[in-house]
User: Fold Wax ester/triacylglycerol synthase family O-acyltransferase from Streptomyces pratisoli.
Amino acid sequence: MSTELLAPLDLAFWHLETADHPMHLGALAYFSPPTAGDGAAATGSEEILGLLATRAAAIPRLRMCVRDVLLPVGGLAWTADKDFDVRRHLRQVRLPAGDFAEAAARLAGELMERPLERGLPPWEMYLLTGGPGDPFGVLVKLHHALADGMRAVAIGAGIFDEIAGPLAARARKSGRRAGLGPSSVPPRSWLPGPWQVAGMARGRIEELGRALGVGASLLGASLARARLDPRGAAALSATSSGTRRLATAVLDLDDVHAVRRVAGGTANDVLLATVAGALRRWMAERGDTLPLSDPSALVPVSRRRPGGPPGSGNKLSAYLLGLPVSEADPWARLYAVRTGMDRNKAAGPLRGAGAVAVLADQLPPLAHRFGAPLAGNAARMLFDLLVTSVPLPRSALSLGGFPLREIYPMAPLARGQSLAVAMSTYGGHVHFGLVADGKALPDVDRLARAVEEELAALVELVC
Assistant:
Protein backbone atom coordinates (compact mmCIF):
# COMPACT_ATOMS: atom_id res chain seq x y z
CA MET A 1 0.00 0.00 0.00
CA SER A 2 1.35 3.41 -0.95
CA THR A 3 2.29 5.68 1.94
CA GLU A 4 3.68 9.16 2.44
CA LEU A 5 5.08 10.48 5.70
CA LEU A 6 3.40 13.51 7.21
CA ALA A 7 5.62 16.55 6.85
CA PRO A 8 6.78 18.20 10.12
CA LEU A 9 4.14 20.95 10.08
CA ASP A 10 1.47 18.39 9.23
CA LEU A 11 2.48 16.42 12.32
CA ALA A 12 2.32 19.56 14.41
CA PHE A 13 -1.20 20.42 13.24
CA TRP A 14 -2.37 16.82 13.72
CA HIS A 15 -1.13 16.66 17.31
CA LEU A 16 -2.28 20.19 18.20
CA GLU A 17 -5.90 19.15 17.78
CA THR A 18 -8.04 18.04 20.70
CA ALA A 19 -11.71 17.08 20.91
CA ASP A 20 -12.67 20.62 21.99
CA HIS A 21 -10.18 22.37 19.73
CA PRO A 22 -10.43 21.26 16.07
CA MET A 23 -7.68 22.16 13.61
CA HIS A 24 -9.41 22.28 10.25
CA LEU A 25 -9.77 25.05 7.71
CA GLY A 26 -12.61 25.47 5.27
CA ALA A 27 -14.51 27.50 2.72
CA LEU A 28 -18.13 28.42 2.18
CA ALA A 29 -19.06 28.94 -1.47
CA TYR A 30 -22.32 30.28 -2.91
CA PHE A 31 -23.53 29.43 -6.40
CA SER A 32 -26.15 31.28 -8.43
CA PRO A 33 -29.53 29.54 -8.71
CA PRO A 34 -30.65 28.21 -12.10
CA THR A 35 -32.41 30.60 -14.44
CA ALA A 36 -35.05 29.94 -17.08
CA GLY A 37 -33.56 28.25 -20.11
CA ASP A 38 -30.39 27.24 -18.27
CA GLY A 39 -30.40 23.78 -19.81
CA ALA A 40 -26.67 23.22 -19.29
CA ALA A 41 -26.99 23.33 -15.53
CA ALA A 42 -27.88 20.47 -13.25
CA THR A 43 -31.55 20.74 -12.31
CA GLY A 44 -31.75 19.56 -8.72
CA SER A 45 -29.91 18.96 -5.49
CA GLU A 46 -29.63 15.20 -6.14
CA GLU A 47 -27.74 15.85 -9.37
CA ILE A 48 -25.45 18.37 -7.68
CA LEU A 49 -24.82 16.01 -4.77
CA GLY A 50 -23.95 13.22 -7.22
CA LEU A 51 -21.60 15.52 -9.11
CA LEU A 52 -19.82 16.51 -5.90
CA ALA A 53 -19.50 12.85 -4.90
CA THR A 54 -18.02 11.85 -8.27
CA ARG A 55 -15.52 14.67 -8.36
CA ALA A 56 -14.45 14.44 -4.71
CA ALA A 57 -13.91 10.68 -5.05
CA ALA A 58 -11.64 11.33 -8.06
CA ILE A 59 -9.26 13.57 -6.07
CA PRO A 60 -6.50 11.23 -4.82
CA ARG A 61 -5.66 13.32 -1.76
CA LEU A 62 -9.22 13.01 -0.46
CA ARG A 63 -8.92 9.22 -0.37
CA MET A 64 -6.03 9.24 2.13
CA CYS A 65 -6.16 8.85 5.89
CA VAL A 66 -3.54 9.05 8.66
CA ARG A 67 -1.99 5.88 10.05
CA ASP A 68 0.83 5.03 12.46
CA VAL A 69 4.14 3.82 10.99
CA LEU A 70 6.90 1.72 12.48
CA LEU A 71 9.62 4.18 11.56
CA PRO A 72 10.41 6.90 12.25
CA VAL A 73 9.36 6.49 15.88
CA GLY A 74 6.39 8.72 16.56
CA GLY A 75 5.80 9.33 12.86
CA LEU A 76 2.57 9.14 10.91
CA ALA A 77 1.85 8.57 7.26
CA TRP A 78 -0.84 9.26 4.71
CA THR A 79 -2.14 6.01 3.31
CA ALA A 80 -4.98 5.07 1.01
CA ASP A 81 -8.23 4.26 2.81
CA LYS A 82 -8.99 0.76 1.54
CA ASP A 83 -12.62 1.16 2.67
CA PHE A 84 -13.07 4.64 1.23
CA ASP A 85 -16.70 5.62 0.72
CA VAL A 86 -17.34 9.18 -0.39
CA ARG A 87 -20.82 9.05 1.16
CA ARG A 88 -19.22 9.13 4.62
CA HIS A 89 -17.88 12.59 3.85
CA LEU A 90 -20.64 14.23 1.83
CA ARG A 91 -23.98 15.39 3.23
CA GLN A 92 -26.88 17.58 2.20
CA VAL A 93 -28.52 20.07 4.58
CA ARG A 94 -31.74 21.87 3.68
CA LEU A 95 -31.83 25.30 5.33
CA PRO A 96 -35.02 26.84 6.70
CA ALA A 97 -36.88 29.50 4.76
CA GLY A 98 -35.59 33.03 5.16
CA ASP A 99 -32.22 34.67 4.60
CA PHE A 100 -30.20 31.90 2.95
CA ALA A 101 -26.77 33.51 3.47
CA GLU A 102 -27.46 34.21 7.14
CA ALA A 103 -28.62 30.64 7.76
CA ALA A 104 -25.66 29.19 5.83
CA ALA A 105 -23.13 31.26 7.80
CA ARG A 106 -24.73 30.25 11.09
CA LEU A 107 -24.62 26.57 10.15
CA ALA A 108 -21.02 26.90 8.92
CA GLY A 109 -19.98 28.19 12.33
CA GLU A 110 -21.67 25.26 14.05
CA LEU A 111 -20.08 22.73 11.70
CA MET A 112 -16.63 24.26 12.19
CA GLU A 113 -16.93 23.40 15.90
CA ARG A 114 -17.00 19.68 15.18
CA PRO A 115 -13.72 17.78 14.83
CA LEU A 116 -13.25 15.53 11.83
CA GLU A 117 -13.29 11.77 12.41
CA ARG A 118 -9.67 10.66 12.61
CA GLY A 119 -10.08 7.13 11.35
CA LEU A 120 -11.28 8.41 7.96
CA PRO A 121 -9.73 10.76 5.39
CA PRO A 122 -9.97 14.07 7.30
CA TRP A 123 -12.42 16.10 5.26
CA GLU A 124 -16.14 16.78 4.93
CA MET A 125 -18.31 18.48 2.34
CA TYR A 126 -21.84 19.80 2.77
CA LEU A 127 -24.34 20.79 0.10
CA LEU A 128 -26.56 23.56 1.52
CA THR A 129 -29.89 24.10 -0.19
CA GLY A 130 -32.85 26.39 0.42
CA GLY A 131 -36.13 27.19 -1.23
CA PRO A 132 -36.95 27.78 -4.92
CA GLY A 133 -34.96 30.70 -6.31
CA ASP A 134 -32.37 30.54 -3.53
CA PRO A 135 -28.70 30.05 -4.32
CA PHE A 136 -27.07 26.90 -3.04
CA GLY A 137 -23.91 26.60 -1.03
CA VAL A 138 -21.05 24.16 -0.63
CA LEU A 139 -19.14 24.04 2.65
CA VAL A 140 -15.79 22.25 2.63
CA LYS A 141 -13.79 21.27 5.74
CA LEU A 142 -10.19 20.04 5.42
CA HIS A 143 -7.91 19.18 8.32
CA HIS A 144 -4.95 21.57 8.46
CA ALA A 145 -2.64 18.53 8.41
CA LEU A 146 -4.04 17.69 4.98
CA ALA A 147 -3.41 21.08 3.41
CA ASP A 148 -2.33 24.67 3.89
CA GLY A 149 -4.27 27.43 2.16
CA MET A 150 -2.68 27.06 -1.29
CA ARG A 151 -2.81 23.27 -1.18
CA ALA A 152 -6.46 23.41 -0.04
CA VAL A 153 -7.31 25.54 -3.07
CA ALA A 154 -5.54 23.07 -5.36
CA ILE A 155 -7.48 20.17 -3.80
CA GLY A 156 -10.83 21.89 -3.62
CA ALA A 157 -10.61 23.22 -7.18
CA GLY A 158 -11.17 19.67 -8.38
CA ILE A 159 -14.92 20.01 -7.81
CA PHE A 160 -15.31 22.88 -10.31
CA ASP A 161 -16.35 22.30 -13.93
CA GLU A 162 -13.37 24.21 -15.32
CA ILE A 163 -10.85 22.09 -13.37
CA ALA A 164 -12.52 18.68 -13.14
CA GLY A 165 -13.23 18.39 -16.89
CA PRO A 166 -9.63 18.96 -18.14
CA LEU A 167 -8.19 16.77 -15.36
CA ALA A 168 -10.48 13.87 -16.24
CA ALA A 169 -9.68 14.25 -19.94
CA ARG A 170 -5.93 14.16 -19.30
CA ALA A 171 -6.33 11.11 -17.05
CA ARG A 172 -8.29 9.25 -19.77
CA LYS A 173 -5.76 10.23 -22.44
CA SER A 174 -2.80 8.99 -20.42
CA GLY A 175 -4.61 5.87 -19.24
CA ARG A 176 -4.12 6.83 -15.59
CA ARG A 177 -6.63 6.07 -12.88
CA ALA A 178 -7.52 8.39 -10.02
CA GLY A 179 -5.21 6.94 -7.42
CA LEU A 180 -2.05 7.50 -5.46
CA GLY A 181 1.43 8.22 -6.68
CA PRO A 182 4.50 6.14 -5.89
CA SER A 183 5.43 5.58 -2.28
CA SER A 184 7.45 8.33 -0.60
CA VAL A 185 8.67 6.16 2.26
CA PRO A 186 9.87 2.58 2.61
CA PRO A 187 7.23 -0.09 3.24
CA ARG A 188 6.47 -1.07 6.83
CA SER A 189 8.46 -4.29 6.43
CA TRP A 190 11.69 -2.32 5.93
CA LEU A 191 13.97 -2.42 8.99
CA PRO A 192 17.34 -0.63 9.27
CA GLY A 193 20.55 -2.33 10.22
CA PRO A 194 22.46 -1.48 13.45
CA TRP A 195 24.81 1.02 11.79
CA GLN A 196 21.85 2.74 10.14
CA VAL A 197 20.10 2.94 13.52
CA ALA A 198 23.19 4.57 15.03
CA GLY A 199 23.36 7.05 12.16
CA MET A 200 19.69 7.89 12.56
CA ALA A 201 20.20 8.46 16.30
CA ARG A 202 23.10 10.84 15.66
CA GLY A 203 20.94 12.67 13.13
CA ARG A 204 18.11 13.02 15.65
CA ILE A 205 20.54 14.40 18.27
CA GLU A 206 21.90 16.96 15.81
CA GLU A 207 18.38 17.94 14.76
CA LEU A 208 17.32 18.30 18.38
CA GLY A 209 20.31 20.55 19.09
CA ARG A 210 19.40 22.83 16.18
CA ALA A 211 15.76 22.81 17.27
CA LEU A 212 16.69 23.79 20.82
CA GLY A 213 18.63 26.76 19.50
CA VAL A 214 15.73 27.96 17.37
CA GLY A 215 13.25 27.18 20.14
CA ALA A 216 15.24 29.11 22.75
CA SER A 217 15.26 32.26 20.65
CA LEU A 218 11.56 31.87 19.85
CA LEU A 219 10.66 31.23 23.51
CA GLY A 220 12.74 34.24 24.57
CA ALA A 221 10.84 36.47 22.15
CA SER A 222 7.53 35.03 23.37
CA LEU A 223 8.35 35.60 27.03
CA ALA A 224 9.54 39.13 26.31
CA ARG A 225 6.25 39.87 24.60
CA ALA A 226 4.29 38.26 27.43
CA ARG A 227 6.07 40.44 29.99
CA LEU A 228 5.57 43.62 28.00
CA ASP A 229 2.05 42.96 26.81
CA PRO A 230 -0.05 40.26 28.47
CA ARG A 231 -2.50 40.39 25.55
CA GLY A 232 -3.79 43.86 26.18
CA ALA A 233 -6.68 43.63 23.69
CA ALA A 234 -9.54 42.54 25.96
CA ALA A 235 -11.81 41.67 23.02
CA LEU A 236 -9.28 39.12 21.78
CA SER A 237 -8.20 37.58 25.08
CA ALA A 238 -11.30 35.78 26.35
CA THR A 239 -11.03 32.15 27.43
CA SER A 240 -11.67 29.67 24.62
CA SER A 241 -15.09 28.03 24.70
CA GLY A 242 -14.76 25.67 21.74
CA THR A 243 -17.74 27.31 20.00
CA ARG A 244 -17.50 28.92 16.56
CA ARG A 245 -19.26 31.71 14.68
CA LEU A 246 -18.70 32.78 11.08
CA ALA A 247 -19.24 36.31 9.83
CA THR A 248 -18.60 37.51 6.28
CA ALA A 249 -17.75 40.77 4.56
CA VAL A 250 -17.29 41.77 0.90
CA LEU A 251 -15.02 44.52 -0.43
CA ASP A 252 -14.79 45.87 -3.96
CA LEU A 253 -11.33 45.11 -5.33
CA ASP A 254 -11.35 48.34 -7.37
CA ASP A 255 -11.77 50.28 -4.11
CA VAL A 256 -8.79 48.46 -2.60
CA HIS A 257 -6.62 49.36 -5.59
CA ALA A 258 -7.85 52.97 -5.55
CA VAL A 259 -6.50 53.33 -2.01
CA ARG A 260 -3.29 51.47 -2.90
CA ARG A 261 -2.53 53.77 -5.81
CA VAL A 262 -2.62 56.79 -3.51
CA ALA A 263 -1.09 55.28 -0.37
CA GLY A 264 1.50 53.03 -2.06
CA GLY A 265 2.45 49.57 -0.92
CA THR A 266 0.47 46.50 -1.89
CA ALA A 267 -3.19 45.57 -1.95
CA ASN A 268 -2.51 43.27 0.99
CA ASP A 269 -1.12 46.24 2.95
CA VAL A 270 -4.42 48.05 2.36
CA LEU A 271 -6.40 45.00 3.51
CA LEU A 272 -4.30 44.60 6.66
CA ALA A 273 -4.77 48.30 7.46
CA THR A 274 -8.50 47.86 6.86
CA VAL A 275 -8.56 45.04 9.42
CA ALA A 276 -6.72 47.28 11.91
CA GLY A 277 -9.17 50.14 11.39
CA ALA A 278 -12.14 47.77 11.65
CA LEU A 279 -10.86 46.43 14.97
CA ARG A 280 -10.54 49.99 16.26
CA ARG A 281 -14.12 50.85 15.20
CA TRP A 282 -15.48 47.64 16.69
CA MET A 283 -13.66 48.01 20.01
CA ALA A 284 -14.90 51.60 20.32
CA GLU A 285 -18.50 50.51 19.71
CA ARG A 286 -18.16 47.80 22.36
CA GLY A 287 -16.84 50.33 24.83
CA ASP A 288 -13.54 48.47 25.10
CA THR A 289 -10.50 50.38 26.25
CA LEU A 290 -7.93 50.44 23.47
CA PRO A 291 -4.95 48.23 24.35
CA LEU A 292 -1.76 49.81 25.66
CA SER A 293 0.10 48.07 22.85
CA ASP A 294 -1.32 47.05 19.50
CA PRO A 295 -2.57 43.51 18.93
CA SER A 296 -0.14 41.30 17.07
CA ALA A 297 -1.31 39.53 13.93
CA LEU A 298 0.21 36.34 12.58
CA VAL A 299 0.35 36.72 8.78
CA PRO A 300 1.07 33.32 7.13
CA VAL A 301 3.48 33.20 4.19
CA SER A 302 3.62 30.32 1.75
CA ARG A 303 7.00 28.66 1.18
CA ARG A 304 5.84 27.11 -2.07
CA ARG A 305 7.79 28.27 -5.11
CA PRO A 306 5.78 30.22 -7.70
CA GLY A 307 5.12 27.99 -10.70
CA GLY A 308 6.49 24.95 -8.89
CA PRO A 309 4.66 21.69 -8.25
CA PRO A 310 2.00 21.92 -5.53
CA GLY A 311 3.55 19.05 -3.59
CA SER A 312 1.96 17.76 -0.42
CA GLY A 313 1.96 18.87 3.17
CA ASN A 314 2.05 22.30 4.72
CA LYS A 315 4.74 24.65 3.47
CA LEU A 316 4.16 27.73 5.58
CA SER A 317 6.08 30.38 7.41
CA ALA A 318 4.71 33.58 8.92
CA TYR A 319 5.27 37.24 9.70
CA LEU A 320 4.28 39.01 12.91
CA LEU A 321 2.69 42.41 12.40
CA GLY A 322 1.51 44.85 15.02
CA LEU A 323 -1.92 46.07 13.87
CA PRO A 324 -1.97 49.83 14.62
CA VAL A 325 -5.35 49.82 16.38
CA SER A 326 -4.25 52.58 18.77
CA GLU A 327 -3.56 54.96 15.84
CA ALA A 328 -6.50 57.28 15.16
CA ASP A 329 -5.32 58.55 11.76
CA PRO A 330 -6.21 56.06 8.97
CA TRP A 331 -3.29 57.21 6.80
CA ALA A 332 -0.90 56.73 9.68
CA ARG A 333 -2.34 53.20 10.09
CA LEU A 334 -1.67 52.50 6.43
CA TYR A 335 1.89 53.79 6.72
CA ALA A 336 2.52 51.73 9.86
CA VAL A 337 1.26 48.53 8.19
CA ARG A 338 3.27 49.16 5.03
CA THR A 339 6.43 49.89 7.04
CA GLY A 340 5.95 46.80 9.20
CA MET A 341 5.37 44.51 6.23
CA ASP A 342 8.35 45.95 4.34
CA ARG A 343 10.51 45.27 7.39
CA ASN A 344 9.18 41.70 7.60
CA LYS A 345 9.86 41.04 3.92
CA ALA A 346 13.38 42.42 4.20
CA ALA A 347 14.13 40.08 7.12
CA GLY A 348 12.63 37.09 5.31
CA PRO A 349 9.84 34.65 6.19
CA LEU A 350 11.97 32.36 8.37
CA ARG A 351 12.81 34.92 11.04
CA GLY A 352 10.68 35.89 14.02
CA ALA A 353 7.34 34.11 13.79
CA GLY A 354 8.69 32.18 10.83
CA ALA A 355 11.02 30.38 13.21
CA VAL A 356 8.02 28.25 14.16
CA ALA A 357 8.30 26.58 10.77
CA VAL A 358 12.05 26.12 11.23
CA LEU A 359 11.47 24.57 14.64
CA ALA A 360 8.81 22.23 13.28
CA ASP A 361 11.14 21.09 10.50
CA GLN A 362 13.95 20.29 12.94
CA LEU A 363 12.03 18.41 15.60
CA PRO A 364 11.81 14.61 15.33
CA PRO A 365 8.29 13.12 15.05
CA LEU A 366 8.24 11.92 18.67
CA ALA A 367 8.85 15.49 19.88
CA HIS A 368 5.77 16.68 17.95
CA ARG A 369 3.66 14.02 19.62
CA PHE A 370 4.66 14.97 23.18
CA GLY A 371 5.34 18.67 22.67
CA ALA A 372 2.01 19.59 21.05
CA PRO A 373 0.25 20.65 24.30
CA LEU A 374 3.08 23.06 25.17
CA ALA A 375 3.22 24.45 21.64
CA GLY A 376 -0.55 24.91 21.52
CA ASN A 377 -0.63 26.92 24.72
CA ALA A 378 2.26 29.11 23.51
CA ALA A 379 0.25 30.53 20.59
CA ARG A 380 -1.49 33.14 22.75
CA MET A 381 1.93 34.39 23.87
CA LEU A 382 3.09 34.87 20.27
CA PHE A 383 0.14 36.61 18.63
CA ASP A 384 -3.42 37.82 19.19
CA LEU A 385 -5.13 36.89 15.93
CA LEU A 386 -4.49 35.31 12.55
CA VAL A 387 -4.91 37.33 9.33
CA THR A 388 -4.34 35.32 6.16
CA SER A 389 -4.89 35.74 2.43
CA VAL A 390 -5.91 32.66 0.41
CA PRO A 391 -5.21 32.86 -3.36
CA LEU A 392 -7.90 31.65 -5.75
CA PRO A 393 -7.92 31.04 -9.52
CA ARG A 394 -8.57 34.24 -11.45
CA SER A 395 -10.87 32.63 -14.01
CA ALA A 396 -14.62 32.27 -13.54
CA LEU A 397 -15.66 28.97 -11.92
CA SER A 398 -18.87 26.95 -11.86
CA LEU A 399 -20.37 23.73 -10.54
CA GLY A 400 -22.77 21.76 -12.72
CA GLY A 401 -23.16 24.85 -14.87
CA PHE A 402 -24.05 27.11 -11.92
CA PRO A 403 -21.64 30.07 -11.63
CA LEU A 404 -19.65 30.51 -8.43
CA ARG A 405 -20.84 33.78 -6.93
CA GLU A 406 -18.96 34.19 -3.65
CA ILE A 407 -16.43 32.17 -1.68
CA TYR A 408 -15.45 32.79 1.94
CA PRO A 409 -12.32 31.12 3.34
CA MET A 410 -12.28 29.99 6.98
CA ALA A 411 -9.05 29.68 8.97
CA PRO A 412 -8.62 27.60 12.13
CA LEU A 413 -8.41 29.27 15.52
CA ALA A 414 -5.21 28.72 17.46
CA ARG A 415 -5.64 27.66 21.07
CA GLY A 416 -6.30 30.69 23.24
CA GLN A 417 -7.35 32.79 20.25
CA SER A 418 -10.76 34.39 19.71
CA LEU A 419 -10.51 35.52 16.07
CA ALA A 420 -9.07 34.36 12.74
CA VAL A 421 -9.50 36.48 9.60
CA ALA A 422 -9.15 34.94 6.13
CA MET A 423 -9.44 36.77 2.81
CA SER A 424 -9.73 35.65 -0.81
CA THR A 425 -10.19 37.54 -4.08
CA TYR A 426 -12.65 36.35 -6.69
CA GLY A 427 -14.77 38.03 -9.33
CA GLY A 428 -13.53 41.53 -8.60
CA HIS A 429 -14.27 41.31 -4.88
CA VAL A 430 -12.40 40.46 -1.70
CA HIS A 431 -14.37 38.03 0.46
CA PHE A 432 -13.66 37.98 4.19
CA GLY A 433 -14.38 35.00 6.40
CA LEU A 434 -14.14 35.89 10.10
CA VAL A 435 -14.10 32.81 12.33
CA ALA A 436 -14.56 33.66 16.00
CA ASP A 437 -15.01 31.95 19.32
CA GLY A 438 -18.79 32.04 19.59
CA LYS A 439 -18.95 32.98 23.28
CA ALA A 440 -15.97 35.34 23.33
CA LEU A 441 -17.09 37.32 20.24
CA PRO A 442 -20.87 36.95 19.88
CA ASP A 443 -20.90 40.27 17.95
CA VAL A 444 -18.42 39.20 15.25
CA ASP A 445 -21.07 40.17 12.66
CA ARG A 446 -20.59 43.77 13.74
CA LEU A 447 -16.84 43.44 13.20
CA ALA A 448 -17.53 42.20 9.66
CA ARG A 449 -19.60 45.32 8.98
CA ALA A 450 -16.78 47.44 10.41
CA VAL A 451 -14.44 45.95 7.78
CA GLU A 452 -16.72 47.25 5.01
CA GLU A 453 -17.15 50.64 6.72
CA GLU A 454 -13.40 51.08 7.16
CA LEU A 455 -12.60 50.58 3.49
CA ALA A 456 -15.46 52.93 2.53
CA ALA A 457 -13.91 55.58 4.79
CA LEU A 458 -10.49 55.09 3.17
CA VAL A 459 -12.01 55.43 -0.30
CA GLU A 460 -13.64 58.72 0.71
CA LEU A 461 -10.22 60.05 1.67
CA VAL A 462 -8.74 59.35 -1.78
CA CYS A 463 -11.71 60.56 -3.84
Observations:
- Residues 217 and 306 are 30 Å apart (CA to CA).
- The chain has a mean pLDDT of 79.
- The domain at 3-174 is CATH 3.30.559.10 (Chloramphenicol Acetyltransferase).
